[in-house]
């Protein structure tokens, strides 16, 4: 089973999104954020290579993958290191943003 680790800034961003959801849409939506992220986290532990490669980051050294969070509005971007069996979540990308911003936010 893989170990899933959040990049510190990405974990803070996730918590900001949850808090904003709580303030704007209520507790039920905030719980849905946490529940959806927990499902993804558990799935990544078992099947780290199961999500599709992120096309916006296809020319990078690392093979970044992404999966939908909260429908199709957000994507969790991560990479897997099979030699250490560690999955690193590196960004939560709001898909309404300019696609170029994702490439700038994710290190090579």
Low-confidence stretches: none
| Basic shape | globular
State mean pLDDT (0 to 100 scale): 94
- Write the element-wise H/E pattern from the N-terminal end onward: EHHEEEH
CATH class: Alpha Beta
Biggest sheet architecture: 4 strands, mixed
What is the name of the CATH superfamily?
RelE-like
Number of strands: 4
Topology-level CATH name: YaeB-like fold
**How many H/I helices?**
3
Identify the CATH architecture: 2-Layer Sandwich
Roughly how much helix do the residues carry, as a percent range?
Answer: 40-55%
**What structural class should be given to the helix and strand makeup?**
alpha+beta
Distance between the termini: 26 Å
Q: How many domains?
A: 1
Radius of gyration, in angstroms, nearest whole number: 14 Å
Arrangement of strands in the largest sheet: 1-4-3-2
Give the percentage of residues in beta strands. Answer: 25-35%
Helix-strand layout with pairing:
Blueprint: E1 3-6, H1 8-25, H2 27-46, E2 64-69, E3 74-81, E4 86-94, H3 99-105
Parallel strand pairs: 1-4
Antiparallel strand pairs: 2-3, 3-4
Helix pairs in contact: 1-2
Model description:
The longest helix is centred in the middle third of the chain and has 20 residues, at 27-46. This protein has one domain (3-105): YaeB-like fold, CATH 3.30.2310. Helix 1 (8-25) packs antiparallel against helix 2 (27-46). The mean pLDDT is 94. Helices cover 42% and strands 25% of the residues. The chain contains 3 helices and 4 strands, in the order βααβββα. Strands 1-4-3-2 form a 4-stranded mixed beta sheet. The radius of gyration is 14 Å and the shape is globular. It is of the alpha+beta class and 108 residues long.
């Amino acid at each position: 089973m893989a170990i899933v680790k959040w990049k510190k800034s990405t974990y803070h961003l996730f918590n900001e999104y949850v808090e904003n959801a709580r303030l704007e849409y209520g507790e039920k939506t905030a719980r849905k954020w946490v529940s959806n992220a927990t499902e993804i986290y558990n799935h990544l532990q078992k099947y780290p290579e199961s999500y599709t490669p992120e096309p916006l980051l296809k020319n990078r050294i690392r093979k970044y993958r992404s999966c939908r969070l909260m429908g199709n509005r957000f994507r969790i971007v991560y990479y897997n290191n099979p030699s250490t069996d560690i999955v690193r979540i590196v960004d939560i990308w709001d898909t309404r943003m300019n696609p170029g911003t994702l490439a700038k936010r994710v290190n090579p």
